[in-house]
Write a structure and sequence with these properties.
alpha/beta; single chain; Rossmann fold; 41% helix; nine-stranded mixed beta sheet
C-alpha cells in the first residue's frame, strides 16, 4: 500500500516522486524517478537517500531509479529494537528493500550501495540472488572480513562500530545530547581532504538524528552487525555461497578501507565476478566525486 507525499524533509530531489510503502508493518520511504531498467540505491551512515543527490538525476536518464531510506533511517519507519538483534539485522533490512521493489513491480533489479546500505545490499544479494542482476558497493569490504580481522587501524578508524554497538543506552544518550556534533564529527573524520557537504544537506542529516527513534535504530543496526549478522555471514561463508552476479567495488584512497588494503582481493573471497578501482576521495564517495561515480556506474550497469 503506497502513501503519497508524506515526507517532512524540506529537501527533495527535483524530478523524483516521494512515497512510502508498508512492508510487514514498517513504513519504507523512497523517491522514484526516471525510466528504464530498475535500479535501487541504498545509502550509508549517518545519511539518508540524499547521499545520491548528484548521482541519481543522471542515472534516471537510463534507469527507473529508486532511492530508499533504510529501516531506522531518514524518513522510513523506526521500529523499537529487540534484544536478539533481528529487527535491525541485515536480513530484515534487505527483505524490506526486496519487498519495496516488488510492490513497485520490479522482480529483478540492479543495486548500487554505500556503507551500511552496501552491507544491506550484500545480504540482499545472498538471500535473494534471483532478484539482483548487478551489484555495486562503495568503500566497504564484507562485515565478516572486518570483524575477523580487527587491527589497531580498524579499531581507530572504525571506532564508531564498537561505540554504537555498546549496550545500556550509552551511545543513544551521548548522541542525543548533541546530534549535530556527532554527525559533523563523523564527516570531519572520514571525508576526503578539501571536500565538504552542503550546509542544507548536513542539516537534513542532523534533523534525522534529532529523532531518538533513529538514534536507537541506527545503534541497533550496528549491534546486529556484531551479533546476528556475523552469525548469518559465517553460515553463508561456511556453506560456500557467494555473490554470483557481477560486482563493482569502488573505494576511496582516503576512505575506510584504508591505504594499502586490497578490496578487490577481499571481495573475490565473497563473489565470483569482481571488478573495480579506487577513486581520489574519502569515505563519502557519491558526495565527494559524483561525476566519477556516475561514469563508473554507466560503464557497469545494464
Amino acid at each position: 500500500m503506497k502513501a503519497k507525499d508524506p515526507i517532512t524533509s524540506p529537501l527533495r530531489l527535483p524530478g523524483f516522486e516521494y512515497q512510502q510503502v508498508d512492508v510487514d508493518g514498517v513504513s519504507i520511504s523512497y523517491a522514484v524517478g526516471g525510466s528504464g531498467s530498475p535500479l535501487l540505491l541504498l545509502h550509508g551512515y549517518p545519511e539518508n537517500h540524499l547521499i545520491w543527490r548528484d548521482v541519481a538525476p543522471g542515472l534516471a536518464r537510463e534507469h527507473t531509479v529508486v532511492l530508499a531510506d533504510l529501516r531506522g533511517y531518514g524518513n522510513s519507519g523506526k521500529p523499537a529494537p529487540d534484544t536478539a538483534g533481528l529487527i535491525y539485522s541485515k536480513r530484515s533490512m534487505a527483505r524490506d528493500q526486496v519487498r519495496l521493489m516488488r510492490q513497485l513491480g520490479f522482480w529483478q533489479f540492479q543495486v548500487v550501495s554505500h556503507d551500511r546500505g552496501a552491507r544491506v545490499g550484500h545480504r540482499l544479494v545472498l538471500d535473494h540472488p534471483d532478484a539482483v542482476s548487478r551489484f555495486a558497493v562503495m568503500d566497504i569490504v564484507p562485515t565478516r572480513h572486518v570483524l575477523h580481522n580487527v587491527t589497531r587501524t580498524v579499531a581507530q578508524t572504525d571506532y564508531h562500530w564498537f561505540f554504537l554497538a555498546t549496550g545500556n543506552g550509552i551511545p543513544e544518550r551521548l548522541i542525543s545530547d548533541d546530534p549535530g556534533f556527532w554527525v559533523r564529527s563523523l564527516f570531519a573524520q572520514h571525508i576526503g581532504k578539501g571536500a565538504s557537504i552542503e550546509p542544507e544537506v548536513m542539516q537534513d542529516y542532523i534533523r534525522c538524528f534529532r529523532d531518538p527513534r533513529m538514534v536507537a535504530g541506527s545503534c541497533a543496526d550496528y549491534r546486529s552487525a556484531l551479533t546476528v549478522d556475523l552469525v548469518h555471514d559465517d553460515e553463508t561463508f561456511a556453506a560456500g555461497r557467494k555473490v554470483e552476479c557481477p560486482l563493482l567495488v569502488l573505494w576511496g584512497t582516503q576512505g575506510l578501507t584504508g591505504p594499502g588494503s586490497d578490496p578487490i582481493g577481499v571481495w573475490r573471497q565473497y563473489a565470483t565476478d569482481v571488478r573495480g578501482h579506487a577513486v581520489p576521495t574519502g569515505h563519502f564517495i557519491p558526495e565527494e566525486a559524483p561525476d566519477l561515480v556516475a561514469a563508473a556506474l554507466r560503464d557497469f550497469l545494464e
